[in-house]
Amino acid sequence: MLNRTIAPPIIDSTEFNLKLKPYDLFHLDNGVPVYAINAGAQDVLQIEMVFYAGNSFEKNKGVAAATNFLLKNGTSTKTAFQLNEAFEYYGASMSRGCYNETSVLSLHTLSKHADKLLPVMNDMLTNAVFPREELDIYIQNSKQRLSVNLLKCEFVAGRKIDQLLYGEQHPYASFTNVPDLDALTIETIKDFYKAYYLQGICAIFIAGKLPANIEQLLNENFGKLQLTKPDFTIEKIATTPAFEKKYRVENDVNAVQGAIRIAQPFPNRHHEDFKKVIVLNTVYGGFFGSRLMSNIREEKGYTYGIYSYLQNHLLESAWMISTEAGKDVCDATIEEVYKEMKLLREELIDEEELSLVRNYMIGGILGDLDGPFHIMAKWKNIILNNLDEKYFYDSVDAIKKTGAEELQVLANKYLQPEKFFELVVF
Amino acid sequence: MIRFEKFTLANGLRVLVHEDNSTPMAVVNVLYDVGAKDESPAKTGFAHLFEHLMFGGSINIPVYDEPLQIAGGENNAFTTNDLTNYYCQLPAENIETAFWLESDRMLSLAFGKKSLEVQRKVVCEEFKEHYINKPYGDVWHKLRKLVYTTHPYKWMTIGASLQHVEDATLADVKAFFKKHYNPSNAILTVAGNVEVSKVKELVEKWFGTIPAGEKYNRNLPVEPKQTAPKTLEVKADVPLDALYKCWHIYPRTDDRYYTADLITDILSGGGSSRLYQSLVKEQQLFSNIDCYHMGSTDAGLLVIEGKLVKGVDIKKAEQAINEELKKIQATGVTVSELEKVKNKTESALAFEDMSVMNRASSIAMYELLGDADLMNKELEKYRAVTAENILAETRIIFDENNCSTMYYMSNN
Description:
heterodimer; A: alpha+beta; Cytochrome Bc1 Complex, Chain A, domain 1; 2 domains; 6-stranded mixed beta sheet; 5-stranded mixed beta sheet; 18% strand; B: Cytochrome Bc1 Complex, Chain A, domain 1; 11 strands; 19% strand
């Protein structure tokens, strides 16, 4: 007779030997590095061109994002429609994104069509024309989207907490508003395009089932451009955190929930505490079984979900607690958030809980390494942060070896309520 | 081509195993053939609330999550109008932990009062977060009621009202479990770094002794054919007017489903699609426009929705959509347009199959539709759609008597 009360034996995840598949590296004729993971069962391919063309480099708000978006809206020989069609005919998607330091152009396609699509990507990158009418439509539609977002408490809270952490002058908290959109001009966009794309700093990341001639294809299309390779260092920009710590903002008179953000500035991934704090954060609010989730959702039912995390920034990070809670239980929620900090400061995490968290984290990394795109995402993050594979293996080590005493010391160092900004947007 | 092996236990549990030795992980996916459409109209939102309760401990195991996390695993679940799906991923060496946990909650739940009380609150907060505290959050609540008169698709998975969730009792929970959560209503998929023979042995060990229970025979009211246009105008505190148009289409297993799916791509799948080019770029009537279908098992909906550029008259915007539909009804699609959307589908199918987790849930979903091997025939079915099929279907689907229209107007 099967005894269902006894768990089957398991192999402790910390015994797993985690390996991050190394990338292949080659350089185009102009020196641009190409990081490659050739793997996977599906005949698909992802090519990401990362430029140092994020909003940190713009003089006027919104220029970096507009340039990145409008790259795909017409070249000297193709209208926006024709350019889109050139990608879409082969079932490919060409997406772009703009972040703080970097921007990215990414192509997802069946591997067999790469040779037909890379010339289109080259055309887009080198012959963009930024038509006036395309900019007008972009401004109009961005303003409309913004007007909807500004009604959402979580959107408003997300902007406001970054402003408190970094100061409105810092690129991490420099948000585009209606007047900025209205002030966009073709000239500033073309200047930005020239400086940061045509003559930009670029690295390429490719993953999937790579065609045998990929090196040649990339070199033909991007190896002659006036691009330079990055050194992956970034100049520090001073932050100006707010002085006051507590804020209540009324955004929507009909709100039935409040968006709660509690955060403190935190150093970046190069800081010696970072990897260990990731472990402490996981215990505190980093997964479904965390202290915050168990108490505030699973015990009290104040929210659908509550998480804490470290922001993924290159220069400076922040330790953030984030949730949407019923309007009448926001104060009670905040009280519990601080109570859980206190517990971590005053009591050692018991071995059973810590071992659960270790196993969960190692299992998570193992699952994250599923397929070439995920492996490349890990590498990309490591490389852009100017780190190397040692960071990956040290992180695994930190998960396996950081003990309860050490975590308590870190809790006392960081999880002090007076260090946190506290914001509720109703 | 996704390979798998299928067998059925004596108690009716269908099991599908997909081996992929390139990953160190295993996925265990349990799909129950029950969704919001199986609820009583007076107790909606129950299938989803029940999904939450499935994590509140089972008959022999006080908590679900912890043992899985100790084994290095992660899990989640979702409910739709058609089905409820639970999945976990863990290092393949520890797969038995997943079988132990999943089989125990298929056997019987712990039915705790406390768990019900808390999860009622959690789901109410979920309801608020997604459907009340958001601009346009109640759109589908209103649209479903407008479009369906009879079929239970007329309410959303989260429930028709907060009240229904608040009123759920422990007796309801027990009855629901008995009716729907048994081996004959479930499909178990195991994927990843596993061996079929070993899986067979473990599945037999953990699931083989669960009583078969009663097979639930679904008998849902059929939506009668719509015979006249329907309209609804709503006013709300939103910054922009929005327009929604819905047409009834076909069940998931009908061959015409593939034609309808490609029509949505022709109209709005990307920057070179018809509605985007004409209405957002050329005429600048909408700031965004989307055409999609609900992908439901029973006869679903094809939807066109968009937010209007400030100052545009909604009648004029609607007229412009109708003009585009008339155009496709009159002249159909070009050869290259059809090739484009088929290529897009080929690509989308390949990308979907990248993760072992997706493959596991796809296998279960297709098995629910009748045969897991359907997933290997999808591309062929899309490839078989002709320009003539598209022309004929646009004439049938985009009939004004088959259409429901909602104007969602800004108060400002």
